[in-house]
Batch of 2 targets.
Target 1
Amino acid sequence: MTAVILDGRAMGAEIRSELRDEVRHYLQQRGQPPGLVIVHVSSDDGASAVYSRAILRIAEDIAVSARLEHLPALTSPEELRCRLLLLNEDEATQGIIVQMPLPAHLSQKMVADSIAARKDIDGISTSSAGNLFLGLPSFLPSTAAAVMEILERSKTTVAGRRIVVIGRSNVVGKPLALMLLQKNATVTICHSRTNNLAALTRQAEVLIAAVGRANMVTAEMVRPGATVIDVGINTRPEGGIVGDVDFASVREVAGALTPTPGGVGPLTNVMLLKQCVQAAWQQVGN
Ligand code: NAP
């Protein structure tokens, strides 16, 4: 068997086209586009600056008004909190993202507690997490939302099926498991202390790897015909990136598979923008 490739770039292009229409509609009704602010506290221009620019490019493409606020690495907790509280009140800003990682003296919890839930388009606040836990509508961590979008757009049945998620982080594994449970999947969460991981993954009709270990999921760990979603992004010493799934061997066993690059990654930022547009509509009561 050779797996069907689930093309995240093509799905991302489809969603962008839908968002362009939505933003046009919003602009017609409100006279201004949805606004997004990315706050980046840093002294360097490293990986998260690249990530910020990628978000800005998508925003420009769909005509969301987005800007990057670069704050110096020595910004105090109080200064950052004040800035976020001002953005909460800013009528031109409907979505706020704070780039992680933060400098060590700034706490992620403080940031999560400072962004208003209605503008928390990456689902990092306790309020968003609490709503997700309770099965109430909320903004979702964008990577987990991207995985759900891939499953939905590829018409992968989730309800009633055995799904194994490898990884339990607060940004990917845990929220994803809750979203899948909400969609009536039977979910198993695996992590670094799981015994006999392969015995569990081989039972999965849908297997999702969100670990951060290059090529750790091999063909022997995959049930024939399973749908395999690879969230991992691992930088190779020789350059380029690979996923958590050994693409070459798994594609011979799986029924469907996301590539890396070109799978979950390209959808993650699109989902952020999608939630920004949603936030904008919600803030005008629509
Ligand atoms: P993380 O916080 O480091 O979590 C990794 C998880 O994997 C942890 O729950 C850990 O278990 C588990 N794990 C580690 N080694 C394991 C092993 N040998 N067997 C089973 N489980 C193991 O990472 P993350 O933020 O969730 O990200 C996961 C991956 O997704 C990374 O490669 C990251 O770069 C990628 N990512 C991609 C996107 C995207 O847009 N595509 C976005 C975010 C992240 P413990 O909890 O027991 O430590």
Target 2
Amino acid sequence: METKVIKIDRKNIRKEDLAEAGEILRSGGLVAFPTETVYGLGGDGLNPEASKKIYAAKGRPSDNPLIVHIADVKDIEKLALEIPELAWKLAEKFWPGPMTMILKKGDAVPKTTTGGLDTVAIRLPSDEIARTLIRESGCFIAAPSANSSGRPSPTKAEHVIEDLSGKIDMIIDGGSCDIGLESSIIDLSGEKPLILRPGFITQEDFETVAKGVEYDKAVIAKTPDKNIVAKAPGMKYRHYAPKGSITIVEGEATDVARYINEKVSESEKAGVRTAVICSDENKDRYLCKNIYDLGSRKHEIDITSALFDVLRQLDTDGIGVIFAESFDELRLSQAIMNRLRKAAGYNTVKV
Ligand code: TXA
Ligand code: MG
């Protein structure tokens, strides 16, 4: 299959330019599109054949449900049942934006879309291209992140092309994603609201609307515990890991640098391409040929938006051994460290 790539100018989003993409979606095809979090691989969420194509293109297990994207808040009534008051409050506060809500599934949503579950994940993105596409297509767009299963989520059209070219009908290039980490998922289908995936909207943010919101323990764990399985099916899979091995090093900045420099030197002497992932603040502390600076800790969004690109770049650059600083003091620490720990296979040392 030939994949058509179209560029959309964010400053001048015209409905006509998304007409063909809308037609593809209506006829059961697949279109990758930008959102404020990561690129999504979209198909008609109410068409089981389209959902099946999504799983196939990504190589994704079919028990891992898709998020359905809407453009108007009231549309949750078309997709969900027994909608609690809290859902409307959260929607008012955090939509459009990087929040996904899990609610009881309505009959219109096929179980292929929800991975066989009786609940449905719904998100109203703030990205204008995404919302224009949803409206133009007239569909509720089921969209997982537009990467091959197991790879880091795509934050640029180039990443989508790398993973899915030849497997889907169209890719809409809208430039880089602002946030760069997937949406925060909050489950409202149980007794208590539970955060199934940490993202840009944090526990403290949620608590401004409802008290007693907690993280699913499995997604903030520093080491994996076989007895605690993540509640979101997708959170239990291996994810994000580059081909090289990552070690996260925790401690005071000077101790971390001393430890990493020693290890880098050993590894380089052994002839292995070695890299350091760090923040702007510390980059001059490292003696290493390959420094991947994520940005300043004072601009956390720079760090979140750079992380997946760097994880992909490590493979492109053929890096075998990687040392990474920890980011556990930041507002977005849960979101960042959840991804970094997975990428590192939870390999962490304290110095
Ligand atoms: O930011 C995002 O959420 C992006 C953009 C494209 O919107 N999408 C995204 O989708 O990250 P995906 O499929 O890569 O991740 C969806 C996560 C998976 O971990 C999945 O298991 C979980 O949401 N999920 C979906 N429906 C669920 C449900 N009914 N119950 C529990 N978890 C669910
Ligand atoms: Mg994903």
